[in-house]
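Hi P.,

Sorry for the delay on this. The queue was packed all week, but I finally got your sequence through. Input first:
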Amino acid sequence: MKKFDAQPSIHLNLTRRHFLGAMVAVGAASVAPAAGAFGQQSVTLNPDIAQAIADHFSSIKTMKGGFLQIGPRGDQLSGSFFIQRPGKLRFNYDPPSRMRVICDGNNVQVINDQTHTNNMYQLSKTPLSLLLANKIDLSADMVRNVEAQPDLTKITLGNRTVFGDATIAMIFDSKTYDLRQWTVIDPQGKTTDVIVNNVKTNVSFDDSVFRIDYSGTNR
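Then the structure:
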């Protein structure tokens, strides 16, 4: 299990590939990364229970909160997120980082004011499309594995995107079905953990939260 300091260090040289991979991670608890808890003691979960967990997550149409991101080299970034299904998302990084990501239902805009870059990607070609759909269907080909322990359940999804064959492991509380963590594994096997905090659900957002400025972007 990875550990993180109370005062996170800030790593600003995050690539767009790792950034979008990390941004598929949102949830509803503030805990240390739990992915390392799975191993030989895990068992295959009943498909009906696994789908019930996925349905619980899909039923949360709006949420906002804070996040702590732990990168492959232990680098840490924090910020706030906003989500509205289907297809809308915004992540704002805390200073001194000057990064943010906005998804308006069709495209994903990645902005870094420090490097003066502004890039656009089709939502359907990023891992975010797995997270922002109205429903997560575990009967689909994207399901790679489902494991269970008494306290935690891990559902692993995979999809070939513009960023390669990305794998996303969602870790839920086995009793409440609440999401605790996302772990993203890129095609090189590098992992990014995202833990969230102060989550509120069933909230309302102004349309401007998810509005993309299409001028001056690189597609």
